[in-house]
Design goal:
Mean pLDDT of chain A: 88
Chains: A mainly alpha (about 290), B alpha/beta (about 250), C mainly alpha (about 325)
Oligomer: heterotrimer
Helix content of chain A: over 70%
Largest sheet of chain A: 2 strands, antiparallel
CATH architecture of chain A: Orthogonal Bundle
Number of helices of chain B: 10
Radius of gyration of chain B: 19 Å
Largest interface: A-C, 45 and 48 residues
CATH topology of the largest domain in chain B: Rossmann fold
Radius of gyration of chain A: 19 Å
Distance between the termini of chain B: 38 Å
Number of strands of chain B: 10
Structural class of chain B: alpha/beta
Number of helices of chain A: 11
CATH superfamily of the largest domain in chain B: P-loop containing nucleotide triphosphate hydrolases
Low-confidence stretches of chain A: 287-291
Mean pLDDT of chain B: 91
Number of domains of chain B: 2
Strand order of the largest sheet of chain B: 6-7-8-3-9-10
Chain lengths: ~290, ~250, ~325
């Protein structure tokens, strides 16, 4: 009983780490532009797929990873430049449609470039399971959790200790004031997309050996990451990370104890309950209509 | 009996009190003004009275009924209506449709009637439109009968909001800076409109910066400073009140 | 009579198109595509009341379409109900469900509302996928033939006239609704929600009302779809299908009844026209979504209407 619980928690933390990365990506872009980037899940797919292709082309894994991450960041920049910037003043519904359009567009490109097959990568350090209090853990899960934690810490450092990061936060808080203080908000938007593409790509690469990747896998991952961000309260980075981990663990628990068919449904039921009880997320601030 | 009775009203936003322990009454059938420097809490007070905000403590009674925290649409049904400093115009509709929305409480609006466009609905619509055109004439917007709201000037939209509020047939009408941003001619026109509204027995409360207008049309003035009452009385009393002169009129010069 | 012509110009043009189109139709496949376009149009006309007029997004409307379809399929086959009774039961059930979920979620705004509607759609789709003993699971199921007062709709041609008539009715009802106090209330809460509340509009009530009405439109079209299609499968109510409905509304024109019809027809025909380059379909769909919002945010029909008006004006 205890072993299986630990087993589910470990599985949950592994997928939760990815949800956290995607959720953080949503948050960074939301803060920079108040856009919800529904194409966030495609960054994962592009990261994973490009790595698979580059490895297949004979490149060593580390080189492939770096190149694939760069490719994804370029896609993120292009998205910001050609789809988001021209529609900056559009309303929420329009922006939602643009980014959903972008995700379908990118999914189509991935499907044409890489095909419809499911791909995988070799585990980074073998497939001998580790034993943890009676539960087994694949070394790749440690990679996922470790890399995610490292990326989250780097992001925390970037936003709190560097000038560029602070400029981005200032823009999130008050774009006009930031502009008046000399922050180039166009640059902030581009950086935000590049950063969240990076988070998505790396997350996608480390998780591909476990979950595999296909052109379609971005849809659910993107929605789960969005759920993580909403759960934590949109715009709250720590909230998104916490939301991702909570979502991952609850999902794994319900898959284990209730029904694996309803695993995905349970994630969305949690979101609905949280939204209805706390319309601004678990850690979000209450908004007020100004007239 | 007073139409509106505010007792010990307080509203705080995150520890900052925008309205502090405020009490006053408004008698039916008069023109009242609420004045005070920027940030004195005038608009917050309006939002509290009209149900947009919920009071932190204290009571607001309208027509001898407690209304603190009651939703705005219910207040409208009780006979209270307002306009907005920053305008809440429906830019996606025509001018007369804006006014017709104001008449919503009093028109035929059954679902089946609407879906099937039954004759009683058509009759009600024709009458409502005619009545709303009259209201537009009443506030001096006769030439905008067929205009789209998005094509109207700021000054015209201010009066369109007044017409919209009147369409709801209020007992109490609150006007948030009806003359702000208007030129002298337009201000005089609004002035006349307000007097005519009061002449029809509607109690008017306005927040206004234009002192000439306030002193000219008000029966009673309430002066706010930092969310609390500084003074109240007739225009003559306010003009000679030393606190008001020191805190407010003196600064304006 | 001329007032009627004036008021229903769009409706009359649509009726003329529906009557004349069969002259250009050569085979059953063409009819099939047009029937699906018409069914989509009914959903989108309803959805546009919610999105375009009331300004509330829904990324879960395919679920209501799907529930209507499954209600008809299950009730007419497993339980042997009459097709109209099954359709009515589906609409009533969907209406009740929409009412129950709408009250809490329509307090949410923007992204949160998008998330909530999307979540509801996905939950419903997972349930229908999983409960295979009732729904046939991923393999799907078929409905009994559609019959009304003893007449059974079999030929594609009879279905064409049925769906065409239903679409005209949907357009007529929607146009009436928009040009009524209820329609004004919806447009008002979209334009300035606080302003609407202060003049006496119970905005929550109207948001819920229009959510329920649009869900019932979707359920109605779903029921017809179930009788017409060979098999009802869960793919008709997934997230992607919900997005497609939204795209049809947006592309054709938000806050435009005729725009809904045009958007639905074009977006239904497009994949058939592009059948030879099927692999590029998502790329084109995505590009249309982005391009419409960036270059033509009001959508096709309102943009063209504006251009025509400008030409008429001196």
């Amino acid at each position: 009983m205890l072993e299986s619980t630990i087993q589910f928690i470990l599985a949950g933390l592994t997928s939760g780490a990815i949800y956290a990365l995607v959720g953080l990506g949503f948050t960074i872009i939301y803060n920079a532009s108040h856009v919800i980037n529904f194409a966030q899940g495609e960054f994962i797919v592009i990261g994973g797929m490009s790595t698979v292709a580059l490895v297949a082309a004979g490149l060593p894994l580390p080189v492939a990873i770096v190149l694939a991450t760069l490719v994804t960041m370029v896609v993120g920049l292009a998205l910001a430049r050609f789809a988001i910037q021209p529609a900056k003043d559009a309303d929420v519904v329009a922006l939602i449609i643009i980014t959903i359009g972008a995700s379908i567009f990118l999914r189509g490109i991935v499907q044409v470039v890489f095909g419809k097959d499911i791909h995988s990568l070799p585990h980074f350090s073998g497939e001998t399971p580790l034993n943890l209090m009676g539960a087994t853990l694949m070394p790749q899960s440690l990679w996922v959790m470790g890399i995610s934690a490292a990326l989250i810490l780097v992001m925390a450092w970037f936003f709190n200790a560097t000038l560029a990061g602070k400029a981005m936060l200032a823009t999130a808080y008050n774009a006009l004031a930031a502009r008046l203080m000399g922050v180039d908000t166009k640059w902030v938007l581009l950086s935000a997309f590049a950063l969240s593409a990076l988070l998505g790509a790396v997350g996608g690469i480390v998780v591909t050996p476990i979950t595999f990747v296909s052109y379609e896998s971005g849809i659910m991952l993107g929605l789960k990451g969005f759920s993580a961000a909403v759960l934590g309260g949109l715009g709250n980075g720590i909230g998104a990370v916490a939301g991702g981990l909570i979502l991952g663990v609850v999902e794994a628990m319900s898959a284990g104890y209730i029904s694996s068919a309803y695993k995905d449904a349970i994630a969305f039921i949690i979101i609905l309950v949280v939204l209805v009880a706390r319309p601004n997320g678990l850690f979000g601030k209450k908004g007020i209509d100004r007239v | 009996m007073s139409l509106l009775k505010v007792t010990n009203l307080t509203k705080s936003f995150g520890g900052v009190s925008a309205i502090r322990d405020l009490s006053f009454t408004i008698e039916a059938g008069t023109i009242h003004s609420i004045i005070g420097p920027n940030g004195a809490g005038k608009t917050t007070l309006f939002n509290l009275i009209t149900g947009v905000y919920t009071p932190s403590s204290g009571s607001v009674r309208f027509d001898d009924r407690e209304i603190g925290g009651v939703e705005p649409h219910k207040l409208a049904a009780l006979g209270m209506n307002r306009t907005f400093q920053n305008l809440q115009i429906f830019h996606n509709m025509s001018a007369v449709e804006n006014v017709m929305v104001g008449a919503h409480l009093h028109v035929q609006k059954g679902l089946a009637h609407s879906l099937l466009r039954l004759p009683s609905l058509v009759r009600s619509e024709v009458e409502t439109r005619k009545h709303c055109w009259e209201l537009m004439d009443f506030v001096g917007l006769g030439q905008y009968r067929d205009a789209e709201a998005s094509a109207m000037s700021y000054g015209a939209l201010k009066r369109l909001e007044i017409a919209r509020a009147l369409a709801a047939k209020p007992k109490l009408l609150l006007l948030d800076e009806p003359a702000a941003g208007l030129n002298d001619t337009e201000t005089r026109e609004v002035d006349e409109v307000i007097k005519r509204i009061a002449g029809q027995g509607v109690t008017v409360v306005l927040v206004e910066h234009d002192m000439k207008m306030v002193m000219g049309i008000s029966d009673h003035i309430l002066v706010l400073d930092y969310g609390a009452k500084l003074a109240e009385g007739t225009p003559a009393e306010i003009r000679s009140n030393p606190d008001v002169i020191a805190a407010y009129l003196g600064n304006v010069g | 009579m001329s007032a009627f012509l004036q008021r229903h110009r769009g409706l009359l043009i649509l009726a003329a198109c529906i009557v004349l189109l069969p002259l250009a139709v050569q085979n059953d496949y063409h009819y099939d595509v047009l029937i699906n376009a018409g069914l989509n149009a009914i959903v989108v006309v309803g959805l546009n009341l919610l999105i375009g007029y009331a300004g509330q997004i829904s990324l879960g409307h395919a679920a209501f379409f799907g529930l209507g379809a499954y209600a008809s399929a299950i009730l007419t086959t497993t339980y042997g109900w009459h097709s109209l009774a099954a359709m009515g039961a589906g609409m009533a059930g969907v209406g009740v469900l929409a009412y129950v979920v709408a009250r809490p979620i329509l307090r949410l705004k923007g992204h949160y509302l998008a998330m909530a509607t999307l979540g509801i759609g996905i939950i419903i789709s997972i349930v229908l996928n999983t409960e295979a003993h009732i729904t046939g699971g991923p393999d799907g199921m078929s409905a009994a033939p559609f019959s009304v007062f003893g007449y059974t709709f079999q030929s594609e041609k009879s279905w064409y006239w049925l769906v065409g008539g239903c679409l005209l009715a949907a357009v007529w009802l929607s146009s009436n609704l928009i040009d009524s106090p209820i329609g004004r209330a919806l447009r008002a809460l979209h334009g300035a929600e606080v302003g609407a509340r202060v003049v006496g509009i119970d905005t929550t009530h109207y948001k819920v009302l229009i959510f329920v009405i649009s869900a019932i439109f979707a359920s109605f079209a779903g029921s017809l779809f179930a009788h017409h299609t060979p098999t009802v499968t869960p793919s008709i109510l997934g997230f992607i299908k919900s997005v497609e409905f939204v795209v049809m509304a947006v592309f054709g024109g938000m806050a435009s009844v005729m725009g809904s019809v045009v958007g639905a027809v074009i977006m239904t025909l497009l994949p058939n026209l592009l059948a030879s380059i099927e692999d590029y379909e998502p790329i084109i769909l995505g590009a249309i979504m982005m391009g419409t919002m960036i270059f033509m945010p009001k959508g096709l029909v309102p943009t063209i209407a504006k251009m025509l008006r400008r030409k008429e004006a001196p």
